[in-house]
Amino acid sequence: MAATQGHTKFKNGLVSIITPLHNAEDFIGETIESVLSQNYTHFEMLIVNDHSTDSSQKIVEDYCKKDSRIKLYDSDGYGAAVARNLALRKAQGEFIAFLDSDDLWLSNKLERQLAFMNDKEIDFSYTPYEYIDEHSKPLGIVREVPETIDYHSSLVGCRIGCLSVVYRHEKAPHIQTADLKKRNDDALWLRIFKHIDKGYRLNEVLCLYRKSSNSLSSGSKLKLLGHHYRLYRINEGFGVLKSLLYTFSNVLVYLDVKKNFEHPTNR
């Protein structure tokens, strides 16, 4: 692994945690608690309320009163992409991390990942993750991830989870993506990898991905193809043919992930 020169030590470096929020009253409290339980405590959690109509905002407001590291903003548009963009503009951290409003981190997540990034002198890292259901019960499946990723491999098909990513802010500053309703995390990695050459895997399960019937990842296969197409056509500005080719490469990657990258957990 090639080292990058000129890194500062991560000790006491602020981590900005980006969390879009939309009607997640059943989960957001548990998500926040998983952040508050971190062994590494120097963070800010930037939660952007995307026009929630349930009690999500009130739940977060109560946490804000108890802990100044939890910060709540109102979205200036609609959708997770707009919410993430706003949080990225507000972020003050040396590191950026992502955690959706229904996912969870293990208590050593930030501590282990920042140590890994410091020891290896890298700018972008990610981990495998385990699936849980809507009641936080483990589903017995771990999503494995490749050892490295870069711009090209992300174009062909994304294999990493948003909830696992941490990157060094100064290496990819002021990142903003197109307003995509889905696949906006993939759009984010493509923008980041225009600034950072490569990302590396810390091969430890440090986070829990909730499989929910209401999650953004659910929907018809045909609609998902359309969302992938818009990722290339709008976010990357590719022509029609090139966008179609990469859209269908994503289908092949998806099938490969289901077959070769999801395994029973040992826990």
In a nutshell, what does this entry contain?
35% of the residues lie in helices and 20% in strands. The chain has 267 residues and is α/β, with parallel strands linked by helices. It has one domain: Alpha-Beta Complex (Spore Coat Polysaccharide Biosynthesis Protein SpsA, Chain A).
What does this structure look like?
The chain has 267 residues and is of the alpha/beta class. The chain has one domain: Alpha-Beta Complex (Spore Coat Polysaccharide Biosynthesis Protein SpsA, Chain A). The protein is built from 8 helices and 13 strands. It has an 8-stranded mixed β-sheet, with helices on both faces. It has a 5-stranded mixed β-sheet with strand order 5-12-7-8-13. α1 links the parallel β1 (15-21) and β2. α7 (221-235) packs across α8. The chain is globular. It starts with 14 loop residues before the first strand and ends with a strand.
Beta-strand portion reads: 15-25%
Report the end-to-end length measured between terminal Cα atoms: 30 Å
Q: Mean of residue pLDDT?
A: 89
Q: Poorly predicted ranges (pLDDT <50, ≥5 residues)?
A: 1-8, 215-219
- Total strand segments: 13
Q: Tally the helices.
A: 8
CATH homology superfamily: Spore Coat Polysaccharide Biosynthesis Protein SpsA, Chain A
Outline the secondary-structure elements:
Layout: E1 15-21, H1 28-36, E2 43-49, H2 56-66, E3 70-74, H3 80-90, E4 95-98, E5 104-105, H4 109-120, E6 124-126, E7 129-132, E8 138-143, E9 148-149, H5 151-156, E10 166-168, H6 184-192, E11 199-201, E12 207-210, H7 221-235, H8 240-260, E13 262-264
Helix pairs in contact: 7-8
